[in-house]
Amino acid sequence: MNVLICISRVPDTATKIVVGSDGKTIDNQGVKFIINPYDEYAIEEGLRIKEKFGGSVTAVTVGSEQSSDILRTALAMGVEKATIIKAPEIFDSYFVAYNLAEYAKSIKPDIILLGRQSVDFDSFQIPSLLAGLIDYNLVTVVSKLTIDANKIICERDVEGGKEIVETNLPCIISAQKGLNEPRYPKLPDIMKAKSKPIEILEAKPTDLKMEVISMEIPMKQRIGKILSDSDEDINELVRLLHEEAKVI
Amino acid sequence: MSLNRNLTEEQILLRNTVRKFAEELIKPKAKELDEKEEFSYEITAEMAKMGFLGCFLPEEYGGSGLDYVSYIIVVEEIARIDGSQAATIAAHNSLGVGPLYYFGSEKQKKKYLPKLADGHLWGFGLTEPEAGSDAGNTQTTAVEDGDHWVINGSKIFITNAGTDITLGSTVLAVTGVKSNGKKELTCFIVENGTPGFTIKTMKHKMMWRASNTCELYFEDVRVPKENMLGKRGDGFHQMLATLDNGRLSIAAMGLGLAQGAFDYALNYAKQRKTFGKPISTHQAISFKLADIEMGLEIARTYLYDVCRMLDKNEKITKESAIAKLYCSELAHMAANHCVQILGGYGLMKEYDAEKYYRDQKLLEIGEGTSEIQRLVIAREIGCYNI
Ligand SMILES: Cc1cc2nc3c(=O)[nH]c(=O)nc-3n(C[C@H](O)[C@H](O)[C@H](O)COP(=O)(O)OP(=O)(O)OC[C@H]3O[C@@H](n4cnc5c(N)ncnc54)[C@H](O)[C@@H]3O)c2cc1C
Ligand SMILES: Cc1cc2nc3c(=O)[nH]c(=O)nc-3n(C[C@H](O)[C@H](O)[C@H](O)COP(=O)(O)OP(=O)(O)OC[C@H]3O[C@@H](n4cnc5c(N)ncnc54)[C@H](O)[C@@H]3O)c2cc1C
Description:
The complex is a heterodimer. Chain A is α/β, with parallel strands linked by helices.
């Protein structure tokens, strides 16, 4: 089974975001970038599929050459091959999806795994756009995946319950938290990741479907917290009064 | 970012990985283990899986094949979260694995190292009740008897020597008198379970409470001749060379602890308000934090630089003493400021400051006290060559 994993490089969730001087971009100065957390579940699932069924696992990202850092993490976790599709800073999901689609067409994977959303722009669009562009089956926000011969059984979180979806190969799956427990790369594998190659391709330009007009940091709001009268919540209330409000 | 200045992509990835591991797997248990004074087999097994037990060992012996900077980053990042687990890793790699790898025969290396990289521990038995700073005053003896050496004596404060997963210790003993009248000292490999070899875990420590510290007793312990490490009479030199490298891992523990205390104090200072404003904006508090940051920058740059010297096989006797001394005194300052910045809360076990404050103190004592580091530096710059 050949697996392709699409990963997005996002600002560390703990980073304080500053809007660039043009009012349309993010100031990258001093920002620490990480693998989109949902994409870690995609990587782990891809590795497990390979460990179970054989085949290969490739990772791809659309972005600048600096994305080699997140690909190196994927390689250290066990991905065999990684590709950067080099692109200028374009915040258009269609452009990204188009380039992922072109790459997917060239390697024809059986399964493409993505995160359910990229925590930078949170548009939830790429998996669907990609499925449309290459005509693969698509199941999004999957929290459990079972592969049985050509049958793919997915559990999806829906409001108030679970939905079970069955599909077949080739398909695209977007990963939800809880799908698995991503592994830590081991030290010898981190060292070996150094010698695995990272291929760099040029992105193809597309019409842009979206234009950023301006960016603003949301106003800081004091949001109230509602707690119940369960023992757990009472302990939480005491903790919050003690550690956050610091009134007791 | 200053943390990662001049590091390679792999070294940065390694730091991020170890940091995450320490925060997710060690941090939630560290306080309880400290409180109960309990060595954790579970965490040690997780650390072994990650490759922490054979950091700089080459792959042919089952190790992770790290350069020295990378090894030091591993220790630093664990120490940022917990001194005890960092102690297990630093002592095992530098003092346990180190001498066997650098001075062992091929046969000895093949026999022990793969196991030591994969879940087993090894001790380094130098210190004795009458031989701490004055290690040359070793009293433990080894006498030849046919195909064996017979060891008698005792050791104290030996890290990792007495866990269920410890295979043995490297032990320094007097094997005779040299022509210049000084003691002839030789190292031996002593496996746990050898008749006459008893181990007692030391309790009631102030710091590193989840790390294993032992007294070793030798009563007519017979070890085969092939258990001699290197050549007869080379023991003292081997131990000193081991300590030259080992000091870098204690330095890393100081640097990591200082970083942890700093991160904790800075975060607290920005949230805690007195007189209507965050205490981080009171100059007396902000200057403390500025002082720690200055120390961290200097310590990290210097320590990594000495590691690069070691990677090039340069002599680092003076430099490793400086790194250990500077980093452990930095840890002292940082932990002290951290408690002070937290005020009364800093003294309560519920907050991390108190544990940093305790764990820090060993760094000025173990692997050569601060006084002994100054003595080493003074000797290296020629003060005593009159
Ligand atoms: C500071 C900053 C700098 C950026 N620089 C660049 C740049 O130089 N060039 C550029 O093309 N884009 C750049 N981006 C865009 C970024 O890489 C994402 O492509 C974009 O944010 C997609 O967001 P989305 O919400 O549409 O994704 P979603 O649809 O929410 O993402 C869902 C899933 O799609 C996959 N995915 C998303 N984006 C990518 C991607 N880029 N590559 C591979 N898989 C992906 C992931 O699996 C993700 O979990 C930058 C973003 C930021 C915040
Ligand atoms: C938790 C822990 C773990 C340890 N792990 C190990 C281990 O794994 N293996 C091992 O072999 N040892 C280990 N040690 C022992 C440690 O290295 C010694 O405690 C240390 O070297 C100091 O020796 P000492 O305690 O005998 O102090 P002493 O040598 O008695 O020193 C007492 C004081 O006198 C000072 N002093 C001594 N000589 C001089 C001098 N010439 N000039 C100025 N001042 C001097 C010292 O600096 C110190 O302040 C460990 C210790 C502890 C507490």
